[in-house]
Amino acid sequence: MINLDDNTCPTREQRANGINAFSGKASELIAQAKEGTLRNCERNFQQNSGCLLNFYLTVRVATIKDSVMIIHGPVGCSAPANIYREVYRRLWTGLNRKADFDFHWLTTNLNERDVIYGASDKLRFAIEEAQRRHDPKAIFILTSCASGIIGEDVEGVVGDLQPRIKATIVPIHCEGIRSRIIQTGYDAFWHGILKYLVKEPTKKQPDLINVASMLSYTWQDRQEISRLLGKIGLRANFVPEFASVEDFENLSQAALTAPVCPTYTDYLSRGLEQKFGVPYFLYPSPIGLANTDEWLRTIGRLLNLEKKVEKVIKEERAHWEPRMDRIKSDFAEIKSKNGGSFRIMGSLGQGRLVTQTPFFHELGVSTPVALCQDFDDLLLEDVEQLLKRIGDFDIIVNTFQAAEVAHTARKFDPDMILSCPFQGSAYKREKGMTRIHALRGDGRIWSTQAGYAGAVACGSFLLQATKNRSFQNTMLAKTEDPYKDWWYQQPDPHYYHRKEA
Amino acid sequence: MGLTLVESSPEGLENNPYPEVVEAPRFTCALGGAYGAALAVFGAVPILHSGSGCGMANAHGLTYASGLNSGGTIGPTTTPCSGLIEEHVVFGGEDKLRRLIASTIELMKAELYVVISGCVPALIGDDVDSVVAEFKDQAKVIHVKTSGFIGNGYLGYNMFLDSVIDGLLVKKEKTNKKLVNILGIAPNQHIFWKGELAVIKRLLNSIGLEVNTLFTDFASLKALEAIPEASLNLVLNPWLGLEAAQKLYDRFGTPFEHFGYVPIGPKDTSAFLRRVGKKLKVPSKKIEAVIASEEQHVYRFMEYLTEMFMVAMPHSFTAVIADSRTVISLVRYGANELGWNPELAVVTDDPPLEQREQIQRLITTGLEGTSVPRVLFDYDSHRIRLAMREQPLQVVLGSSLEKYIAKTESEAHHLSVSYPTYDRLVVDRSYAGFRGGIGLLEDMSHSFAGPV
Predict the structure, then answer these.
(1) ipTM for the complex?
(2) Mutate which of B31, B48, B50, B77 to disrupt the A interface (most A C-beta within 10 Å)?
């Protein structure tokens, strides 16, 4: 139950027993989660992993049209948002991107005086300045560790100012210190959206489907989802990047909220159902042929469009399946150096764990071990189902803990590792890593992952990656590993975990 | 173009109570600047005592923003971080840091560990110095006591140098008469830092001097510890690195030369060599021989680019939007060697107020031609955008924040030369030295496939 009277969401720890420290069999993880014995733990050695604000609300909220984002924090917290005027413009307007990409954001740029005397007046000024400069429809206020620790009364400022400010002010509590689980940041964002921005529906739009996804799904993924929905007479309401404030206001008018990344969308989906009766489903995502079939079928079932959907699936299958079969037969030819099928280790978010793993199996490659950023009860049943389908596997749960990942990679010795592209020197970890995904600003068909086109593009990419790894191998051979040898010689990737939480 | 732009703060900037409330400022925080510097010391491992997102924010907001760079071997997710959350805010973060330093020394190969503390420990009052001191017999560990709210990333570079001086340096019995330290080129924040350090080193080597670049040296700890052996600290920035130079003078008696910027093109590079050479008593014959040979080469090769240049960008009204030293270098090169007319100079690194007159003088004097640029000290991307509209411009040398604005609102050639730069990869490149200007024009020409 989502309580929109509260200033913000509960943390993932509070809401769903979220953890980001586990290693073992997936079956054990599920058993412990069900028994309620799954515990998070403190690490004696820990590495950079992102926070509620910077994974990456800064980058994403800045792209909301007709809005101004205000980061209420020191200047470094908003530094990633400096990308806002530039990268997304590489997307060609022919790709259905809006021509108006003129975005705006401000930082309160907190200084020493502010943290001593408080910065409410400064925040007030920033809101007025945003209104004065740009006359936006919404002003988002994103909080930081510093604003949280000094006890800024953001709601007080908003309550005071809103009557005089034309734009709707949306405070979002994404203080980095709130939670170990970065997904709490997504929930905090959706809480603000649900509480302040989504309007009571004046009408219903029976052909409108809400689709929210991570930055790790590219522009072409949107294109593919739009194409598929279009074939059954539906339209996607994509949020949050590049959406207009009106698109957010109209989330309540949609016929359905459909997932691309289930745990990312979870809070929004539940909130929209609870407050406005918009139905939703969380599984599966349209990744891989079989899951895309099921994604479309679920939409069909919920909207009484089964016949249309079956027709589309048939057409699409006829077009894409032969291509997929060629990729599969190519993969069948590539043997693991240990014999057997080609072995992939995927570094995944929770959402990708349940969506990408079946896709790997569809390709005919095996996944001896999965890396998962965090784990909570929200997807427990889906992971259980996954286990029934593909059998037990090893799983390491950590949020970008590079030493633990390097250890795991060495231990399981897969043929290929797939990871988020922004992991520093991770590309050269044993056997060479390649990227598991590109990012939202990538408009190339090559980088598609969603839907039927994405299954084929992604499968082709993986196949391509097997052909030459001289870059990874050379860099591995010619540059230094940051960890001492003993790290790899001892058996436990969680060597530095403390038993007590 | 989307939303209407109106002048902000009708009272004017002078009466603005919070001029620092801005759109997209051109720097990260002090923690970021110190982190960027520590990552540039090969063999050093930074340890962030901060929230878990500070390193990632600076991966995308500093290293990637500085010419699409990765942080290197110890960058992004490899950097140790205490990842402070609410329970540490309540009970203190010292124990977490203690365990983190111990495990980092145990696990990671390094000659030097650099603890960089951020907002959270500063606000909750962790005694980081005491925790760091506990390790003094185990490894070289220094502490840079930053926070995000204490200042910007440039200040973080100064703070890093300060901690190196206090934590690592001891007076040497002998100094090396030929050794020069380079100060004022901040890793990452000056996006051409790697190339510039290499070019400056080669230049000074060419007149027989030895150079300690401090950063990118494979004998990193040794390089830092050798700072007091130098006979000269050379400050290539109007303000950054000056404090360190003064402190090194006070502590070790090392004189410093305040050149103020990185020279671009033969005129300024020759002046630079003459000035440094004179200071260190290099025979002028040796210097003049280098200058003569390089000049001959550069101007002969410049002839290859003249046709493109005369079609595409002659006499250009120019804006330079960058940190102080980059503005000085490029305004001077454009005005004195290319015949450009500098119209607008926006200094984006928020230099100390007491240095601004000097910076203004360096930007506006010693220029050929009749144009004297309007100088603004501002880092607000909105106000800078408005300022760009106030005069015609054909060349905009700035950050990638100006890329589309230059094209659509000014009809100008644009090249990213300052933070943030998200539209080009910069690894080896720089415009420093005799041949640097040729590189600048090579990089600018791609946006003008010259129609005949």
Answers:
(1) 0.96
(2) B77
Best mutation target among A51, A68, A75 (most B Cβ atoms within 10 Å) is: A75
Domain positions in chain B are 30-168, 179-296, 313-421
Q: Which region among A125-129, A405-409, B222-226, B245-249 has the lowest average model confidence (pLDDT)?
A: A405-409
* CATH superfamily membership of B179-296: Nitrogenase molybdenum iron protein domain (3.40.50.1980)
CB contact (8 A) between residue A83 and residue B99: no
Contact list in A for residue B79 (CB cut-off 8 A) is 47-48
Query: Using CB atoms, which residue from B24, B76, B81 is nearest to A82?
Result: B24
The CATH superfamily assigned to A320-489 is Nitrogenase molybdenum iron protein domain (3.40.50.1980)
Reading the block at residue A62, the tokens are 């800045």
How is the beta sheet containing B210-212 ordered, strand by strand?
B210-212, B179-183, B232-235, B256-258
Q: Is the pLDDT of residue B1 over 50?
A: no
Which of A48, A105, A479 comes nearest B52 by C-beta?
A: A48
Q: Report chain B's mean pLDDT, rounded to a whole number.
A: 95
Angle at B331 between CA B328 and CA B337, to 5 degrees: 120
pLDDT tens digit sequence for A7-62: 999 999 999 999 999 999 999 999 999 999 999 999 999 999 999 999 889 999 99
Chain B nearest CA to A470, separation (Å): 19
| C-beta atoms of B81 and A48 within 8 A | yes
Using the 8-state DSSP alphabet, how is residue A480 labeled? -
pTM: 0.96
- Cβ separation A125–B22 shorter than 8 A: no
